[in-house]
Design brief:
The complex is a heterodimer of chains A (about 180) and B (about 200). Chain A is mainly alpha-helical. In chain A, about 75% of the residues lie in helices and about 0% in strands. Chain A folds into two domains: about 90 residues, Orthogonal Bundle (Rna Polymerase Sigma Factor, Chain: A); about 70 residues, Orthogonal Bundle (Arc Repressor Mutant, subunit A). Chain A is built from nine helices and no strands. The longest helix of chain A is centred in the N-terminal third of the chain and has 23 residues. Chain B has two domains: about 35 residues, no CATH class; about 120 residues, Immunoglobulins (Immunoglobulin-like, Sandwich). In chain B, about 25% of the residues lie in helices and about 25% in strands. Chain B has four helices and nine strands; from the N terminus they run ααααβββββββββ. Chain B starts with 5 loop residues before the first helix and ends in a 6-residue tail after the last strand. The chains are: A mainly alpha (about 180), B alpha+beta (about 200). At the A-B interface, α2, α3, α4, α6 and α7 of A face α1, α2 and β6 of B.
């Protein structure tokens, strides 16, 4: 069953259909929020708010766009609002230098290592640059989709992706040396 | 962007396999989320469901005239009780200006948003009240290039921005407060019901 068909079921009053949409898209939302906001608790709140608002506003979804893109639009804006309410001028990222050492006992060092490297590579980027880069490179969305869901022009997005990519690659390579 | 190379692929793999990525999810998270969703009213019956509904509201012309007359009388009576975010004629909207508009109950209050943008071909308002969707709440243009929309808002704080021609986000130049953003952009803020609504 497609997302649009599930949406129709939700509109008809079937909560289980919404649960299936949550199952399909929760991880995507969670990883994007996690990398946009940096803090797991903020990310989880943003994801919860996103799905609740999507449920409330499900009639606002138009089948001509993908449900995933519509959901990510809400998510990006929830992340914006979350950070505004947090009242910070800069993103906070907690360096956990002991994490790699502890992770070596979990048997999955490579994944944790790469994950921490990415977090550090993202440091110093504002949310708009992170969003542009991660939606393009991480989620493989087209520029016009990203433009629609962020409200930025395609030209601006290409510039953000380029700047973010340069920033991330430099720090990524620096972490490896 | 250039064609992805090995570094891009490694970064993408780190993103997809990192926090929130495949295999790292909290198995209880979706259950907690659905528990919260199930406490929500069904979308068809939600308080704001009508706002998102694509169905046309059908009223007779006489009823429409009557409703308009009542609205005009109510507006005249309310006078300055609704602080509207109206851009002064001839002012040049500037980004980054903080914005605050307040409105008193009843709930939801109708708040009128106005932007002078004579060169725009399309203006809409986005905010946490409409899922930040540029398609949901268009503004109507007057002959003088002032765009207006009356939006029903629930009591509390709402972030919003105008979207010009579907691509340019702009803060409300007439609103006295804005939410400080860490992302290189700002939102305007409207508080419905005054400070005690927060």
């Amino acid at each position: 069953m497609t997302d649009a068909e599930l949406v129709a079921e939700v509109r008809a009053g079937d909560e289980d259909a919404f649960a299936r949409l949550v199952e399909r898209h929760h991880e995507t939302c969670r990883r994007l929020a996690r990398h946009l906001l940096g803090e797991p608790s903020d990310a989880e709140d943003a994801v919860q708010e996103t799905f609740v608002r999507a449920y409330r506003g499900i009639r606002g979804y138009r089948e001509r766009e993908s449900f995933r893109a519509w959901l990510l639009q809400i998510l990006v804006n929830r992340c914006r609002t979350a950070a505004v309410r947090r009242g910070e001028r800069r993103q906070r990222f907690v360096h956990d230098d002991g994490a790699l050492e502890r992770a070596s006992t979990t048997g999955d060092t490579g994944r944790v290592d790469a994950s921490l490297r990415l977090e550090r590579a993202l440091e110093g980027l504002d949310l708009e640059h992170r969003a542009a880069f991660l939606l393009k490179v991480g989620e493989d969305l087209e520029y016009d989709e990203i433009a629609h869901l962020t409200g930025a022009s395609v030209a601006a997005l290409k510039m953000r992706v380029k700047r973010a990519r340069d920033h991330i690659r430099a720090r990524w390579l620096g972490e490896r040396t | 962007m250039n064609e992805p190379d090995d570094i891009d692929r490694a970064i993408r793999d780190a993103y997809q396999g990192g926090p929130g990525g495949a295999g790292t999810g909290d198995p209880g998270a979706t259950a907690r989320l659905m528990e919260r969703v199930r406490r929500e009213p069904a979308p068809r019956r939600g308080r704001l469901a009508w706002w998102f509904a694509p169905d046309a509201l059908r009223v007779s012309p006489a009823a429409a005239v009557a409703v308009l007359a009542v609205a005009l009388l109510a507006g005249a009576y309310a006078g300055g009780r609704l602080v509207r975010s109206v851009a002064p004629e001839g002012s040049v909207p500037r980004g980054g200006i903080a914005a605050l508009a307040t409105a008193t109950p009843p709930e939801p209050a109708s708040v009128t948003f106005t932007l002078r943008a004579p060169d725009a071909s399309r203006v809409s308002i986005v905010g946490d009240f409409n899922g930040w969707s540029p398609d949901v709440t268009p503004l109507a243009r007057s002959s003088s290039g002032v765009w207006t929309a009356a939006v029903p808002l629930e009591r509390g704080l709402h972030n919003y921005a105008f979207v010009i021609d579907g691509r340019e986000w702009r803060t409300d130049p007439a609103a006295p407060l804005a939410a400080g953003s860490t992302f290189g952009s700002q939102n305007s803020v409207v508080i419905v019901g005054g400070g005690d609504a927060l």
